[in-house]
Amino acid sequence: MSYRRALLTRWSRRDRLTVLVVAVTTAFLVGTTLLLAAAGAQTATLAGDLNTTATATYEDSFSAATADADPGDLVFPTAVLRAADGSSHRFIGVPNGTPTEIADSSVDWRRATIPSPGGGVTGPVASSTQRRFRTASGSTTLTIDPQTDSDSLFPAAWYVANASTVRSLGGGDVDALVIHPDERLTGLLSVPTVGSPLVAALVFLFAGMRQLLTALLAATVGSALLVLVVVYNVLRMTVRDRIRAIRVIRSTGGTPRRVRWLFGLRAGLIVGLGVALGYAVGFVLTNAVVNVAVFAGLPISLTPSLTPLALGTLAVVLPTLVLAGVLAGVLAARTATRRPPTRLGDTPRRAGTRDGSTFGRLRSRLTPTLLDPRAVVPTTLTLAVFAVVVVLIVSLTGAVAPLSTQDEGTIAEAGSANVLNSRIDADYATVLRSRGVDASPEIILAQAVDGEPFLGLGANYTAFASVTNASLERGHAPRTPSQAVIGADLARTLDVGVGDPLTLGGSFSPAVTRVTVVGVFSAAGVDDDQVVVPLPMAHHLAIREGFVQYIRTSGADLDGMDGTAARANDTITTTIASAPNVTAANRTVSVTVRAENPGDAAATREVPVSIGNVTRTRSVSLGAGESTQFSVSLRAPAPGERTLRVGSRSQPIRVLAANALWFPTELPGTGPPNATLFVPVVTPDEEPIPNATVAVGGRTTNTGSNGIAQVTLPAEPGSYVLRASKAGRPRATHNLTVATGSRREPSARLQVTPRSGSVLERPTANVTVANPWNARLSRELTLSSAITNRNRTVTLDPGEVASLNVSVFAGADGRASPGTYPVRLLSNGTPIAQAEYTVEGDQRLFSALASNGQYSGNAGIGQAIQSVFGNVQLLFVVMVLLAGLTTVGTTAATFAQTVHARRRAIGVHRATGATPRDVLRTVLADVCLISVPAAIVALCLAVGSLRVLGQAGVLTLFGIRLSVATPAWVLLGTAVGAFALSVLGAVLATVPFLTRPPTGLLGETTAEPTHRDQERR
């Protein structure tokens, strides 16, 4: 056997221990990589087809933005104008030729459409309205038409006009919103670093995964350092064992470089085998731990496998470990290659002088008896890496722990795969509050700005603060949908404060908006790393109005979730079943009242019914669970806008003079030029008025015997006032807009009966539609409610009227939760009538919650994070376990080197009568002298390293800034754990030497090449 083969293949017990240590270290990295890669794969699954990275940026100069725009970029001028009441409103201009949709950003449930103003201004109005604004050139009055596109990229509160109009209103060079539509998300490296994505979910997840991989890179560097320390220590022992062989090799022509590379190759083989073994162990162990966790019932949703991300990461990590081993082997052999061959094997002797001073005696007491004091350096490095892992995981746990606290709970949709896919009625929160439970309906908003991922939250800040104990440090709570508050930690991460604007994109739906930070709050855990926007804005960015992803509660005992709901107070509730919206003065008004007793016992209540200052009272007695309807008649007061009240319920009612003229409210407010409109003129009691004069735009006509006039609309587009008059009667007026391209819509009347009821009620909508145009109309009518839509196509000849009754909630899978819901009638998507229906909360409410919702003792954000990472506690346990095993193996290798170097001294102790237990006691005393300062220094290095990483931004993951302010008990526990692991490693390293006879320790153990080996050379 040649000396090359002997040096490369003759492995001792220490070498095999090194293979084991490297294997454990590699298993740690492989397991962590597989879990993170599985999380990355799951993020792509959760986000579905959201692989567009079309982004939006906000510029302070429209001219500059236009000049800098790339081909395909869309540049929209924008300005903020103040209305007459002082409120601020954003105007956005759409240039001519702008596409109506960004197809690549559209998703199945919402198109990324760009609204067209059609030559005018559209805004958040129900009908054409004139509003006054302060512009750069002074005050001006604008006609605002209703918005017709429900899938607009822009918020419904924004006013949309032509680009030239906005630039004129803003005066000079206005700001600009730029959309860059030609980018695609193909992986972690394609995350956009500028702007806000129109659909941010996948960008948020990929950017966060990239941050996690950066943290994994730091772990790789630490693990490579451990491998370097272990292999260096073991090969130093090998060099010491083979020093005579090296001397022979050097004396017979072997160059120092050849010797160094032989030991480097030997180290590479040892580490390579350890890496291969660790790869297999890490893969098998990780899957085994996940399977055990699933079997134990933990909510694990990860499937560790060799995804392309995992393969790419391991292709960098594992060769790095092997190269670190080769470097360690080369460094270990340097001591045997720097001196001449004749001086190899010389062992320096310790000075025998003693210092009798106090300092000398103290130094003697603190100097190890058997072990080399220099072992404190590798021990410190090893324990420092362990301490970094523990303190880092404690920081992660501290950030995530508040998400799982039982002080907060979550009500989400029953059967939903995770909270991100949950949809639940927001009005459940109102009823929970009525039961004394603090509740906050919330929507998670995944966001990314300039490549920095962070969590947004749609919520009412007051409700959010009530369940999280958040407190405002600066500023105030949001007062409009375009305002937001931000957590103190996230404010530092994004470097924003009160008064700073943020451009936000849609979360799972294409959208863009601009909000202003008006407050900074402080809260526990990740709640301090979020930006909170009002729910109306969150609905624009994420899911449709009326629904949220979950309701966070204060953690009160929700008995109703297990079917034992607390009973309501034994009182009778009353609601308005039917009442007119318009009446005449001094006329008798009939109001139908619905009463219900949700209590367990009979009850009696006095029910007041009033219009203005006219009041009537009715006494109602009901048994337990009974309900009834009754009518109350009272005389209408003097003309004016009045309020009808029944108990705590109210609705507006308009009182007109008995002889007043009146246009029915169903009369259309828009129409095309020169169209003929049938205009009815009636009394407040809807009696037709013949021979009344109707005028609009200089054109005059009279009503016939049926009280209807055929009015031809003006030829010029614009805003007009339709007037009706007749001698001796107060006039009637109606605003009318004539617009080119305006579609003729039917007039409609919608009445829901009853107007309110319990969660079990099935109300009926009475729909009356009429064709007021001198042309045949065919329209698809949609009755839209909170939980279902009903469609029907009608065809009406001029003047024809049709009536139908529709069950409002028919066909819905569930029942509406308590709250007030709009019920709308749409004609080909355009609203033409609206009513309201109120669902009352009663003793059956929580039963409805139990069927439609599911309660969990975790915060919603926590469930979302678990849906992305699986169970994070599992990852933490695996990391600490593998880090502990790595530390034990590394310290064992370190102390094995020092014990091996002092094996002769151990042999002398054994030969002079010391028992193995005595020697072990001496070694443990030395270990204490080495490990105690090593643990202290390791903690300092760990905390210092984490602070440096925190300053570098490495410890900000998914926008969550990990705290490096580690509690004292954690530091103490880490120090004790590190010390215990070092003692265990020392015991494992010493026991093999204690089991050998003293003669074996005193004798030579150096393996030398044989004479035949030398001849072969």
Written overview of the protein:
Residues 220-341, 878-997 form the ABC3 transporter permease C-terminal domain. The chain crosses the membrane at residues 212-235, 267-289, 309-333, 375-396, 874-896, 927-949, 969-994. With 1017 residues, this protein is of the alpha+beta class. The protein folds into 6 domains: 3-43 and 203-344 and 370-398 and 867-1002, no CATH class; 57-182, no CATH class; 405-509 and 522-550, no CATH class; 573-656, Immunoglobulins (Immunoglobulin-like, Sandwich), CATH 2.60.40; 670-738, Immunoglobulins (Immunoglobulin-like), CATH 2.60.40.10; 747-843, Immunoglobulins (Immunoglobulin-like), CATH 2.60.40. A hairpin with a 2-residue loop joins β24 and β25 (614-622). α5 (201-241) packs antiparallel against α10. It is elongated. The termini are close together.
- What is the overall pLDDT average? 77
Structural class: alpha+beta
β-sheet strand percentage: 25-35%
Total count of domains: 6
Straight-line distance between termini: 10 Å
Please report the number of helical segments: 22
The overall strand count is 46
Q: For the CA atoms, what is the radius of gyration?
A: 40 Å
Main sheet: strands, sense, barrel: 10 strands, mixed
User: Which range best describes the helical content: under 10%, 10-25%, 25-40%, 40-55%, 55-70% or over 70%?
Assistant: 25-40%
Poorly predicted ranges: 348-353, 401-407, 559-570, 842-871, 1004-1017
Write the layout of secondary structure elements.
Layout: H1 3-9, H2 13-47, E1 55-59, H3 62-68, E2 74-83, E3 88-94, E4 121-123, E5 129-135, E6 138-146, E7 159-162, H4 163-170, E8 175-180, E9 196-197, H5 201-241, H6 243-251, H7 256-295, H8 308-333, H9 358-366, H10 376-400, E10 409-413, E11 424-425, H11 428-434, E12 439-449, E13 452-458, H12 461-468, E14 471-475, E15 483-487, H13 488-494, E16 501-505, E17 512-522, E18 530-533, H14 535-541, E19 547-548, E20 550-553, E21 573-578, E22 582-584, E23 588-596, E24 603-611, E25 614-622, E26 627-635, E27 640-646, E28 649-656, E29 670-671, E30 676-680, E31 693-696, E32 699-702, E33 708-712, E34 718-726, E35 729-738, E36 747-753, E37 756-757, E38 764-770, E39 777-784, E40 789-796, E41 801-807, E42 819-827, E43 830-839, H15 845-852, E44 853-856, H16 860-869, H17 872-901, H18 903-911, H19 916-951, E45 956-957, E46 960-961, H20 968-994, H21 998-1002, H22 1011-1016
Parallel strand pairs: 3-7, 4-6, 13-18, 15-17, 22-28, 29-35, 37-43
Antiparallel strand pairs: 1-8, 1-9, 2-3, 2-5, 2-8, 5-6, 10-20, 10-44, 11-19, 12-13, 12-20, 14-17, 15-18, 16-17, 21-23, 23-26, 24-25, 24-27, 27-28, 30-33, 31-32, 31-34, 34-35, 36-38, 38-41, 39-40, 39-42, 42-43, 45-46
Membrane topology: Multi-pass membrane protein
Region (Disordered): 339-360
Keywords: Cell membrane, Membrane, Transmembrane, Transmembrane helix
